């Protein structure tokens, strides 16, 4: 399964895979994606996904990896010392997505049906988790880590 399901789904492949695992705990799922980011690998492991492979993998390595997963092993790329930061909540991700579009805090709070004070509290938690001090830095780091899609 890919992370980017495009028009096939309103959710991403990681969320769809997690739903499949909850409905069928014994199913083995391998993510095959071009989005090889630490946050995605971490999310896949956390949700019991069996493997996470980059689309640039050779056909022979792909087959070998799928056989390993079929035989009960997991198959994830070697950790490269990637920093896995504390997970952002769904609300924190949504806030970052909204803020990445350039909206002012009041507009973002209104869109989320929360007060500006609550939004500020969420932003402070985001800044602490991402180890940044501004919305621009938070959005930039969230994009780099794969928490939100790049701005097009």
Task: Write structural notes for this entry.
This protein is mainly α and 152 residues long. It has two domains: 6-70, Rossmann fold, CATH 3.40.50; 90-145, Winged helix-like DNA-binding domain superfamily/Winged helix DNA-binding domain (Arc Repressor Mutant, subunit A), CATH 1.10.10.10. 51% of the residues lie in helices and 5% in strands. It is built from seven helices and two strands. The chain has helices at 13-23, 38-46, 59-70, 90-100, 105-112, 116-130, 135-145, and strands at 30-33, 51-54. It has a two-stranded parallel ribbon with strand order 1-2. Helix 4 (90-100) packs across helix 7 and helix 6 (116-130) packs across helix 7 (135-145). The radius of gyration is 17 Å and the shape is elongated. The mean pLDDT is 86.
Short description:
The chain is mostly helical. It has helices spanning 13-23, 38-46, 59-70, 90-100, 105-112, 116-130, 135-145, and strands at 30-33, 51-54. It has 7 helices and 2 strands, in the order H-E-H-E-H-H-H-H-H.
């Amino acid at each position: 399964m890919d992370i980017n399901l495009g028009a096939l789904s309103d959710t991403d492949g990681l969320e769809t895979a997690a739903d499949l695992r909850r409905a069928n705990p014994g199913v083995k799922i391998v993510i095959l994606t071009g989005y090889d980011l630490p946050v995605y690998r971490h999310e896949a492991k956390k949700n019991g996904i069996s493997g996470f492979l980059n689309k640039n993998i050779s056909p022979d390595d792909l087959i070998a990896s799928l056989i390993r997963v079929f035989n009960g092993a997991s198959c994830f790329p070697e950790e490269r010392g990637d920093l896995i930061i504390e997970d952002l909540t769904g609300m924190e991700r949504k806030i970052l997505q909204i803020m990445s579009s350039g909206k002012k805090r009041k507009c973002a709070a209104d869109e989320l049906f929360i007060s500006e004070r609550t939004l500020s509290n969420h932003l402070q938690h985001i800044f602490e988790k991402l180890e940044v001090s501004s919305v621009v830095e938070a959005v930039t780091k969230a994009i780099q880590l794969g928490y939100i899609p790049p701005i097009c």
